Structure prediction request, 636 residues.
Amino acid sequence: MIDASVHDPPGAAAVVGERAAGTTPETPADAPIIDVWSRTEPKYRRRAVVLLLVTFTLFCGLCVFAFWLRESRLFDFSLASYAAPARFWGADVPNLNDYILEPISVLRTPLHAVVLGQLLAAIVAVPIVVSILYRLPCVIPFLLAVALFAHMPWMSVTLLLSAVLASVRPFRMRFHFGSALLGLLPVLLYLWLATRGTPDMLAAASPTQKTLLAAPWVLAILSAVAMMGVILLIARLVNYRPGAVAPVVAVLFATPVILFHKAVGTDELAYRILERDYGPRSARFEPRQDVRPKLRELARRVVLDESLYARYLPDFVAALSGQPVSNPRQIWHLLEIEFLRNRAEAYEACKQFIADHRTSRYIPNVLYFQARVLDTRLDERTLDRLEPRRELYTDFPHVQSERVWSALLSEHADSPLAIAAGLRLGQLALRRGDADTATKFLDQALELGLELAARAPRDDESLWAALTPAPPESTLLFEPAPHLQEARRLRDLIAQNRDDPQFGNEPLRELASLDSRRAQYAEQILRLAERVRGGLLYDNLLVRWAEAQPDPRRRTALLESLANDLPEGDGKAEAAFRLANLEIQNLGEADPARRARGVARLRELAQQHASLSWGIEATRLLEKLEPAATQRTVPQ
Prediction:
């Protein structure tokens, strides 16, 4: 029922007249009590103001907590932080589903859906109830808190419409709970519009995943209805005396905060921010990246710095316009400085996380980040030609990362990431010439790989499986197979070529010290081969030299010659495998006969060198190319 007279109770004119005369009247006996301000006694007015301030303070805390859950910091009053969520045009329009997928995904941490649902319910319910019990002007500070502290400008606008529907004539009803439900309509419309255009991954989500994705919004609406009902019921029971809202808001504030700290954890948020900013898939450490945006940013800095203007700007202009650059290394030097700065920031961020969250289940992941960051290098081969991209690699470990890899392997030996630690420690030990220690680390990695394969979980789409927290490393997209393959190759290289009667382990040490991504790698390998001619490692060095040739035709011809002419051994097996791989993948696309020769070469390799890493890899490649034939001809 619409009440057209709720803001003009009997005796209102008399009350105004008495105020003008300087008196403080009591509430008229026949005046209806419809909200907090209906009581005109000074003690009620003072209580109303004080408790409204308490409610507002608690609500501001809720809004700050909502922003902290997204950015892991309490405040950000920069213009950009407000412009991004306010934008509703362009390719990267913010979507409400971003809040439930980043930084903490409800798919990985299902209990976070409850936290978000309770938090959103409180942000929605409190302004609507305040508009009913304290009238519309009093709700404006709450809406500003949503916009300024929670950084949710469109939610603030939506709640303004909700407050108008709930408290302003002719929409306001005598039945306050009905007014509150009417005020929820703009929120429902907001949720529907703000979750449209969902990411592509949601379209392919399983029914269980879709249920988890919808849970925060459904829970938020149901909880908001319950919260408003409880507050309005308490207000009615105390006949609208001040104090009905503040205690309930205190509970609403405490519930998501306590639930988050107990069921989700601050380390979850800190880790997700760390993973987003410095993880293997972060923008800072993408293996291949278009550097034109970075060049434009650096060019703007050069323009503003008079000392750099004349020296760098012409090269920047030429590079961005596609013209020849007089000194490309000069520009790449600036890019390298930027990269080293990012690497230092990532290392310190990982160090800070470990210091703050010593018992977190994400410690192995952070150690992996930290060591991987130290191992990350710029590919020198791209420096001589200024292409609009830069490449990073991590497969040649840095000596500074040994301590971190050692901590990961010794303290978290059951983590899949320890496979990478075993491999890198083996490489570093061999670089010092310690073949025994290198073999021990590589064996440890290979044994862990076998254990993980034995206990690999089966696919389970049940709701219980979805509610079970995912393994800490699940979001890293870490693949043990390439690391195990590299460890097996290095293990065989050591076993077949160590303790050379003439040269000892020095050739292995020198080979391990050469970075294949360096511009002079092929020449360094050839010089090493000439020094150890006749040694055990000589054939392997020739294969590495052939593999390092930039011309595909020359590389194929050299590998074919080595595969045919080298004596039996691991060098001949490596040459045969790499040649077969070229014949199948690159040359075989245009020449079926060449592809057939590559497959035949793999069969021969799998039969004659079944115990070597190259024979094992040949068997696995054959299983992919012709699984039926492999089962008949190759022992399992």
Remarks:
- Confidence is low (pLDDT under 50) at residues 1-25, 628-636.
- The longest helix spans residues 207-237.
